C-alpha cells in the first residue's frame, strides 16, 4: 500500500488537526520545560495471541542498494505482530519501486511517499500515522537480529516500572554486512540516565531503541530544527535525551543491531554530526534547568571523540579544525577528554569479538564482548549516577508542588 504524504508539515500537527483529539496525559507525573505534549492517535488493543502491535519506521532516501536487505531483517522478526512504515523521502532511485515489490509480499508493509524534507520529517510522518502500542526505528541500511523486537518487548514486560525506552547493543557492519566491530552496552546503565547519556551517549544508535508510541509523540518525535540550522545528524540524540529527561530507560544487553558504516564523504558527515551533537546538548540543557552545568560541559567535550574518527580516516586537517572548534569553548574539559580517550585506546583491554568477519545474520548476538565503554573511572561514574538521581528527584518535586 502506498500513501502520498499531505503538503502540510507532518512533523507538527496543525491547529485544525488537534481539534477533537484527546490531550496527552503526563508520563509518570513528569514534565520538562520546553517539551510540548503531542496528541495520541487511537492505538488498538493488543491481540493476546499475537502480542502488542509494534510499528517499525524506516526512513529511506536513495536507499536502493540496502533497503531490501533491511526490510528482510524486519520481516524475519520472531515477533510477527508488526506494522512496517517505510517513508520514501523524495528518493530519485529505485527505492520506492523496491519497497512496493516487498509490500506485495507482506501486507504488514506500507509505503509513504513525500518530497525530500530530511530524516526527522520522514520519521515523524510515520510516527503520527503509527497504530502500534510501541514504535521502533531503523535506518534503511541497518539490520536487525530476528529476536530484536521480541527481546525488547520482554524487557518492557518484566520491569515493574515500565521504562520509557529500551535499547540494545549493536555491531558495526561494512558494505557487505560483515561485522567489523561490536558495541555491547553496559547492563548497569539503566534507570534515570539523563546526565550519563549526555556525558557518554551510551545508546547512540536509533536503530537500537524501542519506545511506547505515546511517549515518542509526547516529546514531539524527532526535531527538524537541526536540519533547518544546517546541523542535521543528532536528531536521534536530541530525542533520546528528551526521553531520558522524562523517565527511566532500560537495557537489553545483546548485539541485536547491525549498524552500517559508510566511507563516502566521511569528513563532512563527522564534522556535521559533531556540531549537531553540541547543539542537541545545548537545547536539552535549556529545557532542563536543573541539569548541572558541569554535565553539559562534559557532554560537549565528549564530542571531541569524533576527531579520532577523522584521524583514523586520514582527514588530519578536518580533525584539527574540529578539535579547535570544540576546544575554544571549554579548553580544560576538552583536553582532559582527549587524554582519557587516548588512554582508553592505548590501555583498555578488549576481548576480540568471535563474530568479526562474519556476516551479521550469522553472528551470535550474545557473544559480543567489549571492555569498559565508559571513558570515566568509578568516581566519575558514581558522580554521574548521583546527578541522574538528583535531577530525577528535583523534576518530580517540581511537578508535585
Automatic annotation (TrEMBL):
Signal peptide positions on this chain: none
Residue span(s) of domain Glycosyltransferase 2-like: 55-160
Enzyme Commission designation: 2.4.1.212
Keywords per UniProt: Glycosyltransferase, Transferase
GO MF entries: hyaluronan synthase activity
InterPro entries in alphabetical order: Glyco_trans_2-like, Nucleotide-diphossugar_trans
Pfam families: Glycos_transf_2 (PF00535)
Basic and acidic residues composition bias: residue spans: 1-10
Record CDD domains: Glyco_tranf_GTA_type
Enzyme class: transferase
Region (Disordered): 1-46
Coiled-coil regions listed in the entry: none
SUPFAM superfamilies attached to this UniProt entry: Nucleotide-diphospho-sugar transferases
PANTHER family: GLYCOSYLTRANSFERASE, UDP-GLCNAC:BETAGAL BETA-1,3-N-ACETYLGLUCOSAMINYLTRANSFERASE-LIKE PROTEIN 1
Protein name: Hyaluronan synthase
Gene: hyaD
Amino acid at each position: 500500500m502506498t500513501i502520498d504524504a499531505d503538503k502540510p508539515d507532518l512533523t507538527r500537527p496543525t491547529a485544525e488537526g488537534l481539534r477533537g483529539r484527546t490531550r496527552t496525559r503526563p508520563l509518570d507525573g513528569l514534565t520538562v520545560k520546553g517539551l510540548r505534549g503531542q496528541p495520541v492517535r487511537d492505538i488498538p488493543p493488543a491481540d493476546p495471541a499475537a502480542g502488542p502491535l509494534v510499528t517499525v519506521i524506516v526512513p529511506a532516501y536513495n536507499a536502493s542498494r540496502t533497503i531490501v536487505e533491511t526490510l528482510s531483517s524486519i520481516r524475519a522478526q520472531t515477533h510477527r505482530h508488526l506494522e512496517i512504515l517505510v517513508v520514501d523521502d523524495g528518493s530519485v532511485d529505485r527505492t520506492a519501486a523496491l519497497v512496493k515489490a516487498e509490500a506485495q509480499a507482506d501486507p504488514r508493509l506500507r509505503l509513504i511517499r513525500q518530497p525530500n524534507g530530511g530524516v526527522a520529517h520522514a520519521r515523524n510522518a510515520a510516527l503520527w500515522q503509527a497504530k502500534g502500542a510501541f514504535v521502533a526505528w531503523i535506518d534503511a541500511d541497518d539490520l536487525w537480529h530476528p529476536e530484536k523486537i521480541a527481546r525488547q518487548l520482554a524487557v518492557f514486560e518484566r520491569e515493574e516500572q515500565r521504562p520509557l525506552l529500551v535499547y540494545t547493543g549493536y555491531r558495526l557492519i561494512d558494505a557487505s554486512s560483515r561485522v567489523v566491530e561490536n558495541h555491547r552496552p553496559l547492563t548497569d546503565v539503566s534507570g534515570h540516565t539523563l546526565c550519563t547519556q549526555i556525558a557518554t551517549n551510551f545508546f547512540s544508535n536509533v536503530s537500537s531503541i524501542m519506545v511506547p508510541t505515546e511517549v515518542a509523540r509526547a516529546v514531539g518525535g524527532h526535531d527538524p530544527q537541526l536540519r533547518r540550522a544546517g546541523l542535521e545528524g543528532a536528531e536521534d540524540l536530541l530525542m533520546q535525551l528528551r526521553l531520558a529527561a522524562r523517565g527511566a530507560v532500560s537495557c537489553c544487553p545483546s548485539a541485536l543491531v547491525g549498524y552500517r558504516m559508510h566511507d563516502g564523504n566521511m569528513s563532512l558527515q563527522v564534522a556535521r554530526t559533531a556540531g549537531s551533537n553540541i547543539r542537541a546538548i545545548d537545547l536539552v540543557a535549556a529545557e532542563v534547568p536543573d541539569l548541572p552545568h558541569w554535565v553539559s560541559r562534559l557532554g560537549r567535550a565528549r564530542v571531541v571523540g569524533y576527531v579520532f574518527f577523522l584521524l583514523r580516516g586520514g582527514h588530519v586537517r578536518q580533525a584539527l579544525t574540529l578539535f579547535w572548534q570544540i576546544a575554544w569553548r571549554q579548553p580544560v574539559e576538552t583536553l582532559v577528554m582527549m587524554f582519557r580517550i587516548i588512554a582508553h585506546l592505548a590501555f583498555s583491554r578488549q576481548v576480540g569479538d568471535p563474530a568479526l568477519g562474519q556476516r551479521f545474520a550469522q553472528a551470535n548476538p550474545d557473544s559480543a564482548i567489549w571492555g569498559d565503554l565508559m571513558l570515566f573511572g568509578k568516581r566519575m561514574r558514581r558522580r554521574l549516577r548521583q546527578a541522574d538521581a538528583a535531577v530525577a528527584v528535583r523534576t518530580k518535586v517540581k511537578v508535585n508542588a
